[in-house]
Specification:
2 copies of one chain form a homodimer.
Chain A (H helix, E strand, L loop, with lengths): L1 E2 L3 E3 L5 E9 L1 H4 L9 E2 L10 H19 L9 E6 L5 H7 L5 E4 L6 H14 L5 E8 L1 H8 L15 E2 L2 E8 L6 E6 L14 H20 L8 E4 L3 H14 L8 E3 H5 L10 E2 L1 H17 L5 E5 L1 E3 L3 H5 L6 E3 L1 E5 L1
Helix pairs in contact in A: 2-3, 6-7
């Protein structure tokens, strides 16, 4: 059923049966390092290109989440995949090795939430028993695809974020194991005219604010309703903007809020505003949030990854950055 | 409910309430010319870049399908969009001008079917009353993004296809107007090792064959069950390959089969194997097939757009082309 304008509630239960996270070496040493399932030994990971390395990572996440859940690959109904490469090629080249139906998704760094939403439609609708949601990003390929190739040595600007090298997989199921995805608020695209492709926090904060406010209006809730509110990759500055925009509308975020990007690399100043990328919120959810939900340390989580929907071409053509937040509510 | 391995049936009815198609000047003079709703005057269409032209086309398709259905933009629950540009930017930049929830999809030239599948989940699940599915492609931008910029004047190879400049929008609804989407067979990714990025027909034919055979196995049907079987952008050579692969498995396609790409430009030899692109099957469905379904000239259609999931980067790195077919069954 729908609640209000953009919020939907999944009537038949959708369970998050298992998760898997794999990250790059530096990510493995950062804030969430001890939570990840696997850390790559190098960024190349014995592959010839960064694209192949990302693909290997993405494919590993899909394989391992199925294995970790004690299932076979043939038990998976659909692979819902997305990434940041042009034509989401990391996803397609990962999924071609499995004999599973495939749906390719793109919502930039919020893709994991889009996958969880569409996966929930498939499970709640009674169409499939298990679906896999997975997203990835790789710092070395993302910089080339969105800004400058690393080989140029272009200095990073103060407002930039660091694309997380990582892949997260989330296995949804109709079997009553793990926390439930109960609702989603689908995001609208918002563009506040930011043209600096490094300053994604400022582009995404308004979209995130508008979507969470829509969620509060649709449901009649306030931020206090949730044990934890987690936004995607707004970064340090972006998440402050997000807090400010919400406070202007009367919604005050307290200690029950954090942003995956702002927290990802802790206080590492080289990472500027923090992490971003389709692998950022996906790996944080898979590694850090999921176990806390599963063992009831937290019971109600609002999880809203955010995405900056520009391309390198649109940035070079002087376009501003459209952005989006996709929101799911998880209860255990 | 699910039928067999990859086929799903939408229990609550999903209607195709309206469609809209808009194409480029040459497309307006080709085989389906008299069926399109709108023909652009030039490929630039008063815009500075081909990307902006594609966006204008995509946005127009969304606006006009809503208007043609006698609805307001606020009646639309979700925009399901995709295109061929990097990071599907035509979709994001089109959708940012509407205050509608958005889900970005990428399945190359089969994206319109992916949108119809996910749109059907949203309508059949009772979540929204109306959703818009739209995809676009533009010859001038696609050549640059997938192969060579037009300015290079690179000769076209005999097996190449011509990206259709066009956008199609399909409005799904729970209101009993128009034909119904009754089933879908979700495609698996298939890669037969084709490395020539111009030879998409050979890459896509096996994926198309495997998916339609899965559909026949899942449902126990044969090709004769359908008034019309329409594949996406296999092109002339690709659709012959597709026929051959099916015949080897005992499924003989007769006169009730055609391929959108093979037919799009008629016998124009400059277009080599025919049309392709996310706008190809979308505009053919919106302009040519939909009215025939609506007035019961045909009553059972199997519509299976196909997609080649490589990127320019994967091609330059010597990778073969993963491909997919996404299949929907429409009845009136």
């Amino acid at each position: 059923m729908r609640i209000g304008k953009n919020t939907i509630r999944f009537e038949k239960p959708v369970y998050i049966r298992e998760t898997y996270s794999i990250v790059g070496p530096k990510e493995g040493e950062a804030r969430f390092g001890s939570y990840f399932d696997q850390v790559m030994t190098t960024y190349e990971w014995d592959e010839k290109t960064f694209e192949q390395s990302e693909r290997k990572m993405h494919k590993t996440a899909i394989e391992k989440v199925v294995e970790k859940a004690g299932l076979n690959q043939s038990d998976i109904g659909v692979l819902l995949c997305g990434d940041l490469l042009n034509q989401i090629s990391a996803s397609a080249y990962s999924a071609r090795d499995f004999k599973n139906a495939y749906l390719g998704l793109y919502s930039a760094c919020s893709t994991i939430a889009e996958a969880m939403i569409i996966g929930s439609l498939l499970i709640s609708g009674g169409y499939f028993d298990n679906v896999s949601c997975s997203t990835s990003s790789h710092f070395c390929s993302a910089e080339r695809y969105y800004r400058f190739p690393l080989e140029l040595g272009t200095p990073r600007t103060p407002l930039s974020q660091w694309t997380v090298t990582g892949a997260g997989a989330i296995l949804l199921s109709n079997v009553a194991i793990g926390p439930r995805i109960v609702e989603a608020t689908l995001g609208e695209i918002v563009d506040y005219g930011i043209i600096d492709s490094s300053d994604m926090g400022a582009a995404m904060a308004p979209a995130a604010a508008i979507n969470i406010i829509q969620h509060f209006k649709d449901t009649g809730r306030s931020p206090d309703y949730y044990d934890l509110i987690v936004s995607g990759d707004l970064g340090k500055y972006g998440s402050e903007l997000f807090r400010y925009l919400l406070s202007q509308e009367g919604y005050v975020l307290k200690d029950n809020y954090f942003d995956c990007g702002a927290e990802f690399y802790g206080d590492d100043v080289n990472k500027k505003q923090g992490g971003s990328g389709a692998g950022c919120s996906a790996t944080v959810f898979a590694s850090y949030l999921y176990p806390k939900l599963k063992n009831h340390e937290i019971n109600r989580v609002l999880f809203m990854p955010t995405g900056a929907l520009m391309s390198k071409d649109s940035s070079l053509q002087g376009e501003s950055i459209p952005a989006i937040g996709q929101l799911v509510v998880i209860e255990s």
